[in-house]
Amino acid sequence: MRALSLCRLALVACALGVGCTAEPADLPPPPHAADSRPGFVYASADRPLAFPGDYGPHPEYQTEWWYYTGNLRTADQRRFAYQLTFFRRSLVAPAERVERTAELASADIYMGHFALIDVAAAEHRLFERFSRGGGALAGARSRPHAVWLDDWKVSADGAARVLSAADDDVALQLTLLPTLGPILHGEGGYSRKGADPRQASHYYTFPRLDTRGTVEIGGSSHAVSGSSWMDHEFTSSGLGDEQIGWDWFSLQLSDGSALMLFHLRTRDGGIDAYSSGTWIGADGSQRHLKRDDFAIAVDGHWTSPHTGARYPAVWRIEIPSVGLTLDARPFVADQEVVASFVYWEGAVEVTGSSAGGPVEGVGFVELTGYASSMKGAF
Amino acid sequence: MLRQIAANRSQTLLMVAGVALGVAVVVAVDIANDSASRAFQLSTEAIAGRATHEISGGPTGVPVEVYRQLRRSGRRDAAPVIQRLVVVEGQPLTLLGIDPFADAQFRGYTAVAAAAASLDALLTVPGAAILAAATADSLGLAVGDDFEVVVGGISKRLVLVDLAEAADARTERAVRGILLTDIASAQELTGRPQRVDRIDLILDDAAAAQLAGETLGRGLRLDPVGTASGPAREMIDAFRTNLLALSLLALIVGLFLIFNTMTFSVVRRRAGIGTLRALGMTAREVFRQICIEASAIGLVGTGLGLLLGVALGRGAVDLVLTTINDIFFPLTFRDDSLPLLSLAKGAALGVGATVVAALPAAREAAASAPRSAMMRSSAEHSATRLVAAASRIALLLLLGGLVLFALPTRSLVVGFAGLFAATLGIAFLTPLATQGLMSALIAPLRSLAGSLGAAAPRDVSRSLSRTATAVAALMLAISVAIGLQLMIGSFRSTVAVWLERTLTGDVYISAPSVGGTAATDPLAPGVRPALEQLAGVRSVDFVRSTTVRTDLGPIRVAASSRPVYRGQRLYHSLAVPVIELSAALRAGAVLASEPLMNRLGIEVGSLIAIDGRDGPHRAEVVGIYYDYASSQGTLMLDMDFYQRLSGDTQITGAALHLEDPGAAAEMSLQVARALAPQQALDVRPNRALRAEVFAVFDQAFAITGALVILATLVAALGVLSALLAVQLERGRDFGILRAVGLTARQSARQVVGETMLLGAAAGLLAIPTGTALAYLLIHVINKRAFGWTLQMTFDTEPYLSAMGLALGSALLAALLPARRIAARSPVELLR
């Protein structure tokens, strides 16, 4: 789902140090919804996902992302959280691509976001990068799976994924071993986002990856362990006309279950009918959740000192069909991602009850369209 | 005081004019020099950006793999660059291929341009380009238009996808000369899809050392930025040093002039000052009054001089920039802002020099007793002292010059310092020499024109305190004119001889070069076989001109398919007999040109490690040859050997030897037509190429000539002012002579005769001085600046024109006083 946040790679100009103030009106025509750029393939229920092939890139779709988040702890319970995301955007539809001889020629550009959250210090460090796909400066492949941008990379080591990223005095070196998944969202991985059937993505998740490794910040290195979440999504469409943003949740609970939910917010303040989620049992069983199967109530807000945006900050989530009531709150209030586009992506802690018994957990929440409407931005 | 100035209007006018001209010349040259320097700096900085180091790989460029490894190892302050001189609609532009994602930290304006453009189009449309709005306008292009660009003689089509709208004037200037494309388009345009020209880096020294150690090798080098553009910079620096030297010359001539003017104003008014002193004015008051007067004249003259200097400077800027642009480096910048520093320098010089020049005279006038101040004889006494003092200074200066020349250095600045010391030394000898010359002339002139004839040199000798500086200034200016003309003439004839020996082909073929830089763009692959199959051609020689990396830094090489043949070159020194040279070169030995020898301090037998694809090759220098094509120097290699060494098989030039050399012009046309579909080439018959060499040569020296004329003008004005003063003062003498029977006509002739004697003295003294100057310019300055040995040739023309100049300005200076003296009655003159 965060999927849609890929949006404005076209805003690359901002990242080039030009200091533009990203007015949507300045942007190229949005490839949103059905009238996206012609020539790309749209997500379709008829296309099943197959692995390991679908771990790799899908250049026939306009946008794609590989999203890693995780909550980590040191032996003495010091908390860290991280985000390492790779976005790919095709600049040209497959049919319009011309044969180029230049090794650096590229039909794709990649964007990376790398964040490390030091909970004890209430610090959120963010780095953003762009690169062309040409010359293999950035890219992805399915076998053996890898995705990279400069020296930020994810590579496969058997079933495990090895993540490494560094910038300034912040570094990450983690090994992730999946204990569940891949979980296919929606109908066999076809995740509907709007009334037009093409307004959808292919979406799968590794909801629980045992994680070990080290994080470095401010010159000191910490051995950490914890749990990560991985999403991979590809699509050729964006938000619908009435959709302005989304609230997205990925939660890992102490009973071994996991939860993915998203609310698509509409212009009139409502929740779009195509909002949905997936409940994943400890045994890997899953249940698709429709708009009316769950409720998310906001119990508090946080106003960003950086952008002035007012974000929801405390949530109560209720899913009667699985007997789940959860309260989620951020470990650190300020986890706003102020980059080429502005959103909030942060680690949260969860308490509540499942089928009458107490449950707790950790997760990540993504909030978009608060700093400005995401509509028209992609 | 002001009344004093007003009362001697013509005298004052001349003084003001003298100061003004002196200031104007210095300011003008300074403005031109400063502007040239900034234009070059901005133009190179705009392209180098904030890079501190660069990785380059010799003629074949840098593989993309190297850049990929840098990025993958986390080095993000790295950006690939392809940079070429290209031509669009006859206008030279710098093709700059960059990666918009990596370039922003190096060149802010590329980001501005990329942001202005549709980035998508820039990346995905092959040949998508961005131009500054002003540039597109001047080319008549609009967004969406496709247009032709000539890259190394091969024409390609680009499409203008956007205009760079610059946020500020600086950015606007940076972008104006640049044709910006994505790096991938540039790879395709230059025909090297897997390579870039260089990788720019931002590194501190420690990181640079580490990087050089760990990732490089195999023909790649890491150098501080500027090493590669070094040759262009060095040449321009030498050019600017020459200009600076000329502006110093103008300054010295200007100082002479101002000094001369002020001394006169005091000497003239000696009687008046004596009267004032007799009336009770104190020495201090006299001193102050003269200083105030000098300041007033200095201020007015300086003000006028600054205005004139700015106007002249604008013209000089054009001349200098055009020269640099055409010969050395394409300048995309032009800064017309008024250089306040130049103005300040000029102002300080004008006012300061006037006052300082007036000081000795003021001190003398103030110090003398009232009675003696009214007598001229005391002034003439001090003139005798002046000759002795000036001669002592001259000796010191000449000795200093000799010491400076003897210093074991190649420093151009030291060379110029020596040159100035020597020249000034000779100038200070002028009073003594004039005195000698005049005494020698008394006898012959008496027999020629009687006692009146003999009186002229005597009078000149006697009035030396007032005329010495003027004669010295005129002598200096004229000797510089002689020296420069001799040097330029020697240079030209040496080049002519060298061309005769070197240009043995009948038709020369190369890719068109932009901005006068040596052709290093390769010929299209099909050109070589086409040339080899031409009918009517006896043989074809090929050459690859490029730059290779060596342990002595980057060196220009010419790899020739026939580096040696009978009678072709003139050798400075050889390690093996000429007939064995070819075999030695085939085995990997090299020839070095004379400037290279001088620049790097190498000699026959030296070893130079040339980077090859399999590591460095230690090449022995088996000969040094004379060459005037490059002041940086060239290594001559055998082409087969070079190709094995570097893997670079491209050629950049060809020379046809025809069965019928008379058909060269016709053959050139035929070849150009036949090859046009492959590549637009410069195909020139021997004669046309030679003419082009001389055209460039003459252009390079155009500004030198202009400055010489200016300096001479200043000096002539000095003479005019000095002689005018002398003759006006001598009105009383002529009054007596007229009273005892000298006719008006005779006295006018006497004035003209005396003045012409002064001019002749300056001209005669300028002959040995100018010749010595030429010798120093050729054997010290040129050798240090360019590393060239020039055969000194003597032409009578510079001497004749110098003599004409000396006598002409003297005649001009004599006319007004002669008319005045002739027009007045003896009584008027005596009064």
If you had to describe this structure to a student in words, what would you say it looks like?
The complex is a heterodimer of chains A (378) and B (831). Chain A is built from 1 helix and 23 strands. By secondary structure, chain A is an all-beta fold. In chain A, strands 1, 2, 3, 4, 5, 6, 7, 8, 9, 10, 11, 12 and 13 form a 13-stranded antiparallel beta sheet that branches. In chain A, strands 14, 15, 16, 17, 18, 19, 20, 21, 22 and 23 form a 10-stranded antiparallel beta sheet that branches. In chain A, a hairpin with a 2-residue loop joins strand 6 and strand 7. The longest helix of chain A is centred in the first third of the chain and has 7 residues. Chain B folds into 4 domains: 192 residues, no CATH class; 173 residues, no CATH class; 211 residues, no CATH class; 169 residues, no CATH class. Chain B has 29 helices and 21 strands. In chain B, strands 12, 13, 14, 15, 16, 17, 18, 19, 20 and 21 form a 10-stranded mixed beta sheet that branches. In chain B, helix 11 packs parallel to helix 25. The longest helix of chain B is centred in the middle third of the chain and has 51 residues. Chain B starts with a helix and ends with a helix. In chain B, 51% of the residues are buried. The chains are: A mainly beta (378), B alpha+beta (831). At the A-B interface, helix 1 and strand 4 of A face helix 3, helix 4, helix 5, helix 6 and helix 9 of B.
